[in-house]
Specification:
9 helices
């Protein structure tokens, strides 16, 4: 394969390679975090941390995040891109956040359980709740009785990419909308198209510059195309599962319809037989209905 060839101006930032290339830039990451989180004091610097977190004991596995960073204020941020649907993804979010908290424990000496905030940002290429799509979910720990925040140390943002892919540029109103529109549509933008919302967020020019195929080396293109194939495979699996579900639903619907039609037909025959004066036993033998079902027919 000729990895130097590409018919697109920009890489797809939803691939593993593209996602890490775009958000691996401090300027882009800082601008995105400020627009998404909208902190009281703007984030002016991020430090990238080791993406692999070791276990507390040999009995447990390591955790490898897509991106992990820390702000100057000490907040730890986990940024994940997930293209394949998982049945327990909510649990995975809790596990990732909890694992990050557990690594803050100091070894040796006294510890008063003081924790730095952990924020998880999860881009998902599927619906978190089937049939109930929502562009963004902000998850916090709340008191059920009052609705008040129990702690501001843990928060998660879940961004459902399929919702943003359906948006038109003209209906994008929020800062998050601008980012998600560009991320989900970048790969399809042509050479002559202006960068959407560049007047709203200056970091978009840097982001699109990083994503230009022409700026990539031969080795970077090779890694990108491998990542792109994996992304296509994931999308194909999701679409296949969706189509299989639809086909099963239609087949079940037809089977249920046939069964209901047969049942109704038996009842109509039983009614006619009752009018003819046949006994309940004779109707039961002819239709297969139970005695109570025949009696309910009136």
């Amino acid at each position: 394969m000729d990895y130097e060839y590409s018919d697109c101006k920009y890489i797809d930032p939803l691939t593993d390679f593209g996602f890490k290339r775009v958000f691996g830039d401090k300027e882009v990451m800082t601008a995105f975090l400020n627009d998404l989180i909208e902190p009281e004091s703007p984030i002016d610097h991020v430090e990238y941390l080791d993406k692999e977190v070791g276990p507390e004991s040999a009995a447990f596995r390591n955790v490898i995040y897509d991106l992990r960073c820390r702000t100057a204020a000490g907040e730890e941020l986990i940024v994940e891109m997930q293209n394949r649907a998982q049945p327990n993804f909510r649990d995975r979010i809790l596990f990732y956040l909890s694992r990050s908290f557990s690594t803050q424990r100091l070894r040796g000496g006294n510890w008063n359980y003081g924790l730095c905030p952990v924020i998880g940002i999860f881009f998902i290429n599927f619906e978190l709740s089937a049939g109930r799509p929502r562009p963004m979910r902000t998850v916090e720990m709340m008191e059920r009785e009052t609705g008040e925040t129990f702690t501001d140390k843990m928060r998660a943002y879940v961004l459902e990419l399929p919702c943003y892919r359906k948006k038109d540029e003209t209906v994008c109103k929020s800062k998050t909308d601008y980012w998600m529109y560009n991320l989900t549509n970048m790969n399809a933008m042509g050479n002559t198209q202006e960068i959407p919302f560049a007047d709203k967020q200056p970091a978009f020019k840097k982001m699109f510059s990083i994503a230009e195929v022409a700026r990539m080396s031969h080795d970077e293109l090779r890694k990108y195309h491998i990542s792109q194939k994996s992304y296509w495979d994931a999308c194909s699996v999701l679409e296949g599962a969706r189509m299989e579900g639809l086909a099963e639903g239609r087949a079940e619907g037809r089977a249920e319809g046939r069964a209901e039609g047969i049942a109704e037909g038996k009842k109509e025959i039983a009614k006619a037989m009752k009018l003819m004066g046949l006994t309940t036993e004779q109707i039961m033998e002819a239709t297969g209905l139970t005695e109570s079902e025949i009696e309910r027919l009136g």
